Amino acid sequence: MSPALPRHLDPAPPPGPLPARAAFPSSAPHLSLNGDWRFHLAPDPAHVPDAFWSETFDDTAWDLLPVPSHWQLHGYGAPVYTNIRYPFPVDPPYVPQENPTGCYRYGFRPPEPWPDPDRSVLRFEGVDSFFTVWLNGTEVGSAGGSRLPSEFAVGHLLRPGTENVLAVQVHQWSAGSYLEDQDTWWLSGVFREVSLHTRPAGAVTDYRVHAGYTSATGEGVLCVEVDADAVDARVRVPELGVDVPAGERVTVPRVEPWSAELPRLYEGSLTAAGTVVPLRIGFRTVRIDGHVFTVNGRPVKLHGVNRHEFHPDRGRALTARDMLDDVVLMKRHHINAVRTSHYPPHPYFLDLCDEYGLYVIDECDLETHGFILEAGWRGNPSDDPAWEAACLDRARRMVERDKNRPSVVIWSLGNEAGKGRNLHAMRAWISGRDASRPVHYSGDVECSDIYSQTYREHAGVEHIGTGGEHPEKPYLMCEYAHAMGNGPGGLDDYQRLFETHERLMGGLVWEWNDQSLRTRDPLSGQEFFGYGGDFGEEIHDGNYIADGLLLPDRTPTPGLLELKAVIQPLRLTIVPRSGTVTVRSTLHFADTSALRFLYDVVTDHGVVDSGPLDVPVIPAGGEATCALPAIAPTGRETWLTVRAVLAAANRWAPAGHEVAFGQARVAEGAPPQEPEAAARHSRRPPAAEGLSTDRHPTGQVAFGEGIFDVHTGRLHSLGGTELDGPVLDIWRAMTDNDREPGAELRGSEAARTWRQRGLDRMRHRTDQVQADDTALTVRGRLAPASEQFGLAATYHWSAVPGGLRLRLTAAPDGPWPADMPLPRFGVRLAVPAGWSLVRWFGLGPGESYPDSRAAVRVGRWEHTVDALQFPYTFPQENGHRSEVRWAELTPPDGSAGGIRFEGRPHLGFTARRWTTEDLDAARHPHELVARDRVHVHLDLAQHGLGSASCGPDTLPAHRLTAAPMDFTVVLRAIP
């Protein structure tokens, strides 16, 4: 340690902590020190109360703060979010003089007897960012590395049976902060558990499990090594008949290997000096075979997510329930891999990954992303010899803590730390310590056994899959499909590439959880989830932290449902002409014996027939073709859905949980039927005439079931009910993938022009309103101010029983900007607010868009208008239902009135209680206020979503090109 620097500013690891070791429970006595601690926050180190660590210090006036927790989430200071930028001047290793410093005190009484008190150890699982510890007035040591454990020998200071005083000083900022710029909230404090342990003489202090698997023979090889201080240590695995001294290598003829699909663990024990360490052994072998990533001899694709530790109220101070909720949700949605972005997780999370089955990329607590803003990453600690010891210390502590986890299949050096000698040193140390797992790093392929990238476009991934760029290594998208807001689009396009090319080992979606914090509006008191800028930060990156597959409260987003459908482990192909379904498994190890198969026959009346389907057990990677049941004619458009569900409950889902589905149309059906409720004779159309105010002094004209405005040609009422009639609309509230979220220039390059060129402020002009015996025709133009381009539109109205048919034709008019697609094409109208129950026949039950529709299926669905919305943390376009044959809006109490829309053949449908302009202007969901109408959009098409908030723009196949359009919809009054 340099004598010229205060301890928290020295890049080198401080003295005091014990050597890193594996995390494990033991029968040796231990005591939790979690609870309410006395707490005082000093504005900087200079104002820390004198000798607050003294036993005699009077802390009765201090507040109580729970440990574990972050002090910012309990009213001390405020959270800060930045993606890349450091929230302090960049001058490593220095940090601001204004450095909030938390002072903690806690009294505890170890029980008597407390065996071997002189061998007692104090353990901190995680403290952000640098801390110093005193016990009974004597300094014990200091530590950094916020997301890693630190242990201190305190036997010489501990007083069993009497009161002990533990004091901790925590600096918010330290030299280590330069290594922890990890696209998350800057939160401080003792945020993981604190505990006291005794290490009896001769007991196991550390151990290492070697449990390999040979796929060719089914053999398992077991060897459990222990530290040199352990006396007469023995390893017992009763189920395998193993009872041997520690360190002895045992070959077991037949074992069931561990994998994410079949996470087989053998319970055992490691005993020494009267203490017992429970073992959970998973036999598995990870290897790169040529350029293919394999587990237990088989190629494995990773269908993964990046997971920050997060809770909207507790930040990174997670409970066991929080972690279990994450794992259960991952398993239910077919996620088989987790990258612990960008630091080692709580050790209990890895317990769950072992038990439930998830492949883990265990990532070191290292990211220096802010230095990318300096020319050539100037000053980056990754390439500064003064920081080598700190980088190696973090790598060592991660590997030693987690070395016995079967779920950990890859070590990662960190994230977005540039290039440099320290990364190479880390890689060399890890490979030397543990050659059984590959090493990953996406910033420098020379430091990695895997060629890893983030957000590569589809064409680039295909190029790599066919042998381009570092062909000797497997390829991983360690981040892709940025799940910010409504999206990501294009998941199925990526998945097809992963499944086509053996070199592509899959990808990990960014990210698992929207990291917004629960807070309240200071004026209204309404609760909402806050993001960057909502807490008074000096600099911040806005809602760029709201980019998860889960909302902050762990509500699955449509994006997670889409991912589940895209990566579902069975592909079901229904062939109506042959009356068969082919079920193909993409599982790596498990067969389908835990599943049963069901079929549903669906029309616009709902499910009209259903039953079980006889499908044989399919081995991993196999397929079977089975006969479908005979389907009785319905006379209507008919669809067959085949579903695979859990036959019995397992630890992560109940019986009946849907694992996969497939659907196909089995009958076209007759043309749309006129509903009896609307089958009324229309009024006689007016005689042929051009409409003018002179001939219609009321300014209105009746046509069919409608009343139209003579001046604008807009429909004012239908069947006697007032409407704000359909008008051409091309604008949608910008999604996060459309606009430029955060502080960086991101978002869709095409969509960026939408607002620049005025598509959000289009104005309607009516040029002509004309009627004859069969039609009412309205001609006009839609265009923005200050621009010469627009859309020339013609509304062709004709009468039908009980309603009106609208055929809308439109085409670009004037110099339309090159390469500028349309956000949407359709009409918008407003209907009475009381019509709030929605029924439709089409894709559902959730929202869908051109490049995000794998999760939906054709059916008859019902929701309220409110339930059609999805409350993205940042309000944006949402709630669109695709390929709708018909939709009805009616009062929820069954009273008279309503409206029915029929596509010819299909339409897109959206209904909400606010306008698109309201949605586009809001920054949080609670800012949306219901209006006195229901606002409806009927679309011919929408532009795709893409993932351009950080990744590729909408693919060409899903762009809505400005071109001549022809859209027909029928509107019928429901009496």
Structural key phrases:
975 residues, mainly beta, 13-stranded antiparallel β-sheet, 60 strands, 36% strand
Blueprint of the fold:
Elements: E1 30-32, E2 35-42, E3 63-67, E4 80-82, E5 101-108, E6 120-124, E7 127-128, E8 130-135, E9 138-143, E10 150-153, E11 164-171, E12 180-181, E13 184-186, E14 189-190, E15 194-198, E16 207-214, E17 219-226, E18 234-237, E19 242-245, E20 250-252, E21 266-272, E22 275-281, E23 286-289, E24 292-295, E25 298-299, E26 302-306, H1 320-332, E27 337-339, H2 347-356, E28 359-363, E29 367-368, H3 388-402, E30 408-412, H4 421-433, E31 439-440, E32 451-454, H5 458-465, E33 475-480, H6 491-500, E34 504-509, E35 517-520, E36 527-530, H7 558-566, E37 570-575, E38 580-585, E39 595-603, E40 606-613, E41 623-627, E42 638-646, E43 658-667, E44 689-690, E45 700-703, E46 706-709, E47 715-718, E48 721-722, E49 724-729, H8 752-756, E50 762-771, E51 776-784, E52 790-800, E53 803-813, E54 824-832, E55 837-844, E56 857-864, H9 865-868, E57 881-890, E58 899-912, H10 916-921, E59 933-942, E60 965-973
Parallel strand pairs: 12-29, 26-27, 26-34, 27-28, 28-30, 30-31, 32-33, 33-34
Antiparallel strand pairs: 1-15, 2-3, 2-5, 4-13, 5-11, 6-10, 6-15, 7-14, 8-9, 8-11, 16-17, 17-20, 18-19, 18-21, 21-22, 23-24, 24-25, 35-36, 37-38, 38-41, 39-40, 39-42, 42-43, 44-50, 45-46, 46-47, 47-48, 49-54, 50-51, 51-52, 52-53, 53-60, 54-59, 55-56, 55-57, 57-58, 58-59, 58-60
Helix pairs in contact: 1-2, 3-4, 5-6
